[in-house]
Amino acid sequence: MDVSKQATLSTPLDGGAVSSPSSRTSGTETPEPFFSPSPTDDLEPALNEHRAGGGTASIVGAVPLVDDKDGNNEAAPSELHEPKATSLVRADFDLHESAGQHNPTKPGGAKEASPSRPAPNRKKWWLAGLGAVGGVVLIVIVLILVLGNDPPSDPITGLYADFSTGVSLVTEYHADCRVRNRLAQTTIKLEVANALNCSSIHSLSLQLPLNTRIASLETNADEGECTTVGRVQHLEQARETFLESASQGLPGAYVEARASSTRTIQVSIPPFGKTRVTLVVEQLLQQRLGEVEFELPLAPNEDVDDIKFDLNVLDTDGEPVLFELDLNVPGVYVTDENATQVLDPISLSVPDARQYKIPKVLSGKFKPSAIEESGYLYTDGRCFEHYFRPATVDSMRRNLVFLIDTSNSMRWHDKLAAAKIALAQFVDTLRPDETFTIQAFGSKGTEDLWGSAYGTDEEKSEAKKFIGNLSAGGWETNLHEAFLEALLRAKHDVENSDDDVVTILVTLSDAYATRGVTDRRKIAKHIFDLNSDSSVKIFNMGFRDSADMQLLDAIALMNGGLSSPIVQGRDFSDQIGNFLQSELGEILLSDVSLSYETISGARVYGETQSKLPVLADGYEVVTRGLIESDESFEHQLEALTQAYTTNGIMDWKVSAAPTVDESASSSLCFQSYASDRITQLMRLYEAADFIGDDLSKNFVILKNDCKSEKFRDCVKQEALDLAIEANLVVKGLTAMVTVDEKKCAAPDEDAEICVDGMSPDGVTFRPSYSDQSGEEADLEYHNDAVATAESAPMSPYSSGSPRGTYYYSASWRLQSYTALALAAIVSSFLLMHI
Fold first, then answer.
1. What's the pLDDT at 287?
2. What is the 3-state secondary structure (H, E, C) of 424-471?
3. In the chain, pLDDT over 70 holds for what percent of residues?
4. b/e for 398-410, b at 16 or more Cβ within 10 A?
5. Residue 300 burial (C-beta neighbours within 10 Å; 0-12, 13-18, 19+)
6. pLDDT tens digit string along 632-675?
7. If residue 404 lies in a helix (H) or strand (E), which one and from where to where?
8. Where do the H-state alpha helices sit in 710-774?
9. Residue 438, pLDDT score
10. Is the pLDDT reported for residue 833 higher than 80?
11. Helix %, strand %, coil % for the chain, to 5?
């Protein structure tokens, strides 16, 4: 048979092996190109040489061709299985064909005619396999880019009373805001109407700033003749109370903290009725960089028809103060470019609110009047507040080590770009006698390093070039190695620094530890052991949606520092820059300690803070606590502040007599204390997993001796008891629900819950209370489900919810379905071509 009519496989010969592509190379090495010889390139000499050695003139996959009756070159069917068609490879390595190879023939050796079949195209199979590998890689990349390594949003499950039923509408929404001294109080009044002849439940949420508390809640129905008042209860008890009230057709309301900045409000509306709700929200304020910033809930997280808003800002003495407001809504309110500050109260009425993009939260700020150098102290005999901000102290020198995450996730949402802007701006503020180092980390603890160097103009210029050249790469994050290497550098600087130099490690992270040591307890312990003398203050920032904020906060707490989340929806560079300037700007004091005592010897306890790592210029220290005494007290309270300065250790003293004739101020003082104290206790409770019981006792003194085997349980119990006493809503602990104590509303025995509605995001809510016979079963189901959830193991991604919690966030589900659909399309494409 003519060799030119041999079928050939385009396969590289010697020296033409195909090199598989790699996902990432570290050098400039270039993979060898794929080489496919044509039938005339060195093939004839190879075949002739093989014939001379007695071999069969064929190569891998080669079969003899014959001319069919139409003149087409086609392989004889029997020769597809001819054992004599031995490949060069088998001949060279003395490999024989299998004895069991099928060779169909008729008796007598005549070959049976059969329908013709084409020769197998090995090139096509090879390309299909390569395509399959490429498809898998593509699917993985798409899944990473679409889903990322971010934990899902706050979980929403049937265990939470955050559903809506029936058809209802918020017909009015009025926010009346009053800002005075260090408190912003907003009274929200809303009216919800029911369109059906059944009891409906309307759910909405409010976006609230941090350090916000729900002060009071009440509902009003029957033209003002029936009012129910909010009471704080344990979480499960409050949910059951609200659902039971709604099942009886009674008006009511329920508020739960679903996240640090989100409050869910449920309102039950009688058939064809209206429920008016009054909710009071308070935010504790603090002075930073010489200004007091406030944030107010302007509108709920749903469109409403009619919005009214009033704002009045007063100083400590009760007089109006100039303030700035970030509100620019064309057609509603536009800030005067020639007058950035406002003195008069603001009043807005927007009856067609759906036509405008009204912000959910309104931001503003004002400059308060100065307090005395020694501080300001207030006490009512039971509670006290201490404000301290020195103004005549020289700045201390700083030695800063910046630890910046440059793993691949920093590409998303321009996180690294924002960090580079904020860091470059902060570098400009360094003085020539201050030193700094920049360490970038990712898969390795040190990916890039600049410094250490002084803050001269030349060095700062070089540092900003280094910052500008930082790029994100690598799919893993080695937090353990990064922290320890940065800490070693910082401690080396401490050993060679003067006493008036403060060494601070500043971390910016975007991911969980995924490489090296990933055990979070070990990471925290190793850092604490290395920095047991607290010579290096550690301040951590993390992108809240993706960073391990629980670990970052525990590390800061254990090493005399602070942590701050960077949240979506706000400018990243502004948040990073504000944290750096307010916490680490011009350092006035370091190792600040605060102590309190009464002249009579009455016990002072429960201080919200007694130590502070550093105090920057423009920052205000606020400490709250309690005094143990009887009603006949006359206790003079004294506050002592000590700190390191450029001139050594300094003391500041201030005293105050009790003020007992202002009941409103007294109540406000205790609620402010309770809010601060619960935040302190819950922060320690969440960090207890990393710190351990023995070490946790060094960070807080509880009101009563702990008799539990686990100290963290005592911490949580004190927070819970304080929340109940102060009537505060705390995430994961308590909720506020209205209770009809006067029994002014008669239950409707025939009332039904509208069950034709849908829960948020389109998930059908299980029918409840519409069938009287099933009411007890539904309550039993609810209680059993809550008990099951409480006993379930916890996941670090669930924000305190049980593992297995069903997330039905619309965006998360859309991303998941998109990725699965893309995977199905790619798989179908490959199958069609194979």
1. 86
2. HHHHCCCCCCCEEEEEEECCCCCCEEEEEEECCHHHHHHHHHHHHCCC
3. 67
4. bbbbbbbbbbbbb
5. buried
6. 456 689 999 999 999 899 999 999 988 865 545 556 788 889 98
7. strand 397-405
8. 711-726
9. 97
10. no
11. 30, 30, 45
Describe the crossing of helices 122-147 and 810-833 by its angle, rounded to 10 degrees: 180
pLDDT value of residue 42 = 47
| Most confident listed range (46-55, 577-586, 690-699) | 577-586
Contact 363, 313 (CB under 8 A): no
Token pair listed for 160: 């939470």
How many angstroms separate the CA atoms of 547 and 366, rounded?
32
Quick one: which H or E segment has residue 245? Answer: helix 235-247
Count of residues making up the chain: 834
Residues 89, 60 contacting (CB under 8 angstroms) = yes
Token pair of 550, please?
């629980």
Q: Please report which helix (H) or strand (E) contains residue 780, including its range.
A: helix 775-791
Residue 67, CA atoms < 13 Å, CB-side half-sphere: 7
What residues have CB less than 8 Å from 203, skipping those under 6 apart?
162, 163, 164, 264, 265, 266, 267, 760
Residues 6+ apart with CB under 8 A from 472: 406, 407, 408, 409, 410, 411, 416, 442
Q: What is the largest CA-CA distance in the chain?
A: 125
Q: How far is CA 468 from CA 442, 444, 471, 585, in A?
A: 17, 20, 8, 22
Helix (H) or strand (E) holding 820: helix 810-833
Question: Mean pLDDT lowest for which of 58-72, 358-372, 798-812?
Answer: 798-812
Distance of CA 177 to the CA centre of its chain: 29
pLDDT for 748: 64
The partner residues of 641 in beta bridges, in order of sequence, read: 594, 652
List Cβ neighbours of 176 (8 Å cut-off, separation of 6 or more): 186, 187, 188, 189, 309, 310
Q: pLDDT digit string (tens) for 480-495?
A: 999 999 999 999 999 9
Tokens describing residue 581: 């300037």
Model confidence pLDDT, tens digit, residues 2-36: 444 343 333 343 444 434 333 333 334 444 444 44
Q: What's phi and psi for 257, nearest 5 deg?
A: -85, 110
Model pTM greater than 0.85?
no
Cα–Cα dist 128/131, whole Å: 5
Among 32-46, 632-646, 799-813, 818-832, the range scoring the smallest mean pLDDT is 799-813
CA distance 705 to 701: 9
Contact (Cβ atoms closer than 8 angstroms) between residue 297 and residue 223: no
CA distance 327 to 547: 31
The token duo for 537 is 């203050």
Residue 342: C-alpha distances to residues 293, 314, 338 (Å): 14, 12, 11
Task: Retrieve residue 87's tokens.
Answer: 């490949």
Distance, CA of 264 to CA of 214 (rounded, Å): 11
CB-based contact 576:582 (threshold 8 Å)? no
Q: State how far the Cα of 378 lies from the Cα of 434, in Å rounded to an integer.
A: 38
Task: Identify residue 70 by its one-letter amino acid code.
Answer: D
Q: CA–CA separation, 47 vs 39, rounded Å?
A: 11
- DSSP secondary structure of 613-642: EEEETT--EEEEEEE---TT----EEEEEE
Residue 232 and residue 307 in contact, taking contact as beta carbons nearer than 8 Å: no
